[in-house]
Specification:
This protein is mainly alpha-helical. It contains ten helices and two strands. It has one domain: Vanadium-containing Chloroperoxidase, domain 1, CATH 1.20.144. 67% of the residues lie in helices and 4% in strands.
Length: 281
C-alpha cells in the first residue's frame, strides 16, 4: 500500500506539472495566433511567462528528487515487473512514444503531400520541428548533468557526474529523451489540430497528452529514468512545442515553411501539382 501511494503521488505530480505547463503556455500563445502585420510588432518568442513555467517545472523536478528512490522501488517490485499484461502494455506505450512519435511526424508530413493536404503536411512538419528543438536541448542537458540512470544503482538518485553524459549513456538520465519526444509531439499536434480542425481538438489534446504521460510511466517501469527525469522531459517537450508554434505564427513565411511546405498542392490527372515558394528574405 505504501509503494502504491508513492506511485500514485508521483504520477499525480507528473500530471499536475504537465497541465500547468500546457495551461500557462496556452495563455502565452493566444497572443500569437494572428500573423502580425506592419502595424503591430511581432510577439516575443520567449516570454517572462515561459521563464516562470520553466522555473516551476525545474523546481518540481528538483523537489521530486527526494522521492525518486522510493518511487523507483515501487515500480521495480517483483510482482509488478512479473505482470505480463502490464509489461506488454507499457512496452507498446514506450514504442509509441519513441520511435512512434517520430515516425508519425514523418509519416503525417508525407501523407499530407500525398493527399494534397497542406494542413496535414504542416501538422507532421511542425511536430518534427518541436521534436528536433527539444532533442537539442535534451541532449545538451543529458550530457552536461551526467546523472546516472536508476539501473546503475537504484539507491543513488543523486549520483551526478557533470559532462559524463556526453560519453556514457548510463549517465544520461536527466531529462528523459523519450518523454520529451512524446510531449513535444503532443503539444505540436494539439496546437495544430486546434488551428486546422477545431472540432477535433477536444479529443486530440487529452488523448495525446495522456499517451505522453503514459510514456513517462513506461520509462520508469523499464528502470531507465527517475520520476524527476520524466517531469523534466515533459517540461522540455511541452515548451519546445509551444515555442515552435509561436515562431510559425509570428513568422509564417519562415525558411522552414518555405522549403518544406508547398505553397499549394493541386490534384492533377495521374498525380499532383506541387508548388513551392523559395523566396528568401
Amino acid at each position: 500500500m505504501i509503494h502504491t501511494r508513492i506511485t500514485v503521488r508521483a504520477l499525480s505530480i507528473l500530471a499536475g506539472v504537465s497541465i500547468a505547463t500546457v495551461s500557462c503556455s496556452q495563455l502565452a500563445i493566444s497572443q500569437a495566433t494572428v500573423a502580425p502585420d506592419s502595424a503591430h510588432p511581432r510577439p516575443a518568442l520567449f516570454t517572462s511567462r515561459d521563464a516562470a513555467v520553466s522555473a516551476g517545472v525545474a523546481a518540481a523536478a528538483v523537489a521530486l528528487m527526494s522521492a525518486d528512490r522510493s518511487i523507483d522501488h515501487s515500480f521495480q517490485r517483483p510482482g509488478l515487473q512479473s505482470n505480463t499484461g502490464v509489461r506488454r502494455t507499457l512496452d507498446a506505450i514506450n514504442f509509441i512514444g519513441n520511435p512512434g512519435a517520430i515516425a508519425f511526424s514523418a509519416g503525417t508530413y508525407f501523407v499530407g503531400l500525398g493527399m494534397h493536404s497542406r494542413p496535414i503536411a504542416t501538422l507532421g512538419m511542425h511536430m518534427g520541428e518541436a521534436i528536433v528543438l527539444g532533442g537539442v536541448v535534451t541532449e545538451v542537458l543529458k550530457g552536461s548533468v551526467g546523472r546516472a540512470r536508476p539501473y546503475v544503482d537504484p539507491t543513488r538518485p543523486h549520483d551526478f557526474h557533470p559532462g559524463k553524459g556526453f560519453t556514457n549513456d548510463d549517465y544520461a538520465s536527466f531529462p528523459s529523451g523519450d518523454v520529451m519526444v512524446a510531449f513535444a509531439a503532443a503539444t505540436a499536434a494539439s496546437r495544430e489540430v486546434k488551428d486546422s480542425w477545431p472540432g477535433a481538438a477536444k479529443y486530440v489534446t487529452p488523448a495525446s497528452y495522456g499517451v505522453a504521460a503514459l510514456v513517462g510511466v513506461a520509462r520508469m517501469y523499464k528502470n531507465m529514468h527517475w520520476a524527476s527525469d520524466v517531469v523534466a522531459g515533459a517540461g522540455v517537450g511541452t515548451l519546445s512545442g509551444v515555442l515552435f508554434e509561436r515562431y510559425n505564427h509570428a513568422y509564417p513565411n519562415n525558411v522552414f515553411n518555405r522549403v518544406f511546405l508547398p505553397a499549394s498542392i493541386t490534384p492533377v490527372r495521374g498525380g499532383a501539382q506541387v508548388a513551392w515558394s523559395l523566396r528568401l528574405r
